[in-house]
Write a structure and sequence with these properties.
Helices cover 33% and strands 15% of the residues. It has seven helices and seven strands. It has helices spanning 30-38, 52-61, 65-68, 82-88, 144-154, 173-178, 189-214, and strands spanning 5-11, 92-97, 114-116, 125-128, 136-139, 159-165, 221-223. The strands form two sheets. Strands 3-2-6-1-7 form a five-stranded parallel beta sheet, sandwiched between helices. Helix 5 runs parallel beside helix 7 (189-214). The protein is globular and about 50 Å long.
């Protein structure tokens, strides 16, 4: 049996009641809706945590935080990830993340042949906790174009790609407005929540589904 490709997309601060496939009426997320129409639309999802690194550690490891042992922003995953497992089975692996708490220093790059995370050249904000480590946390990393290029260059072999999209997070509206990627005053409620989600649907999912068609990946790839 031929190995299926796997693409996992996670998004910060996006609830189902903001997506039109779940009945939301103020905006239409047409590309996400297409995934829902042609695939499986879950009505219930239970997260291991409301805090991004703990939750995504559980997604990547398939275990609760008491098993992967990442319990705060300064910790590190202490468990085997899906990327490590799939790499052992011959998969090409790539990770793309938009926030530093999901960075290599916290173990999120384990098993990835290529790992793209925020740097001083890509960020739109940095901040630090009051902690002896004095660690800076970078926010913002527009990896969509690089992910598309990676898929074009690596789709000939089975692959696993994880992309964590951060530009839907509170605060991301500032650089998006500054760069005129969303319109001032349009869909502005709750820190431009709808505007950011609509932009993501077009620029992330629209691009991704376009590449699926271009490279004929629909029948050989599971998109989560």
């Amino acid at each position: 049996m031929k190995k299926r490709n796997i693409v996992l997309i996670s998004m910060d601060e996006v609830r189902p009641d903001s997506l039109s496939c779940y009945g939301y009426g103020k905006i239409r997320t047409e590309h996400i809706d297409r995934v829902a129409e042609e695939g499986v639309l879950f009505q219930t999802c239970l997260a291991a945590s409301c805090f991004t690194p703990l939750c995504m550690s559980s997604v990547l490891c398939g275990v609760y935080p008491n098993k992967h042992l990442l319990r705060n922003p300064f910790g590190r995953i202490r468990h085997k990830t899906i990327a490590e497992t799939l790499k052992e089975y011959g998969y090409r692996t790539a990770g793309f993340v938009g926030v530093g708490v999901l960075g290599a220093r916290h173990g999120f790059s384990s098993g990835f042949d290529s790992f793209d995370e925020p740097s001083e050249d890509t960020i739109w904000r940095q901040w630090d906790f009051e902690d002896p480590s004095s660690e800076l946390f970078y926010e913002g990393n527009w990896w969509v174009d690089r992910m598309v290029n990676w898929l074009r260059e690596n789709h000939s072999a089975p692959f696993f790609v994880w992309g964590h999209y951060y530009e839907t997070h509170e605060g991301a509206e500032k650089p998006l407005l500054r760069d005129k990627l969303i319109k001032e005053g349009e869909l502005s409620q709750f820190t431009y929540k709808d505007a950011k989600i609509k932009y993501m649907d077009e620029k992330l999912f629209g691009r991704l589904l376009g590449v699926f068609e271009e490279l004929r990946l629909w029948e050989s790839t599971t998109l989560v």
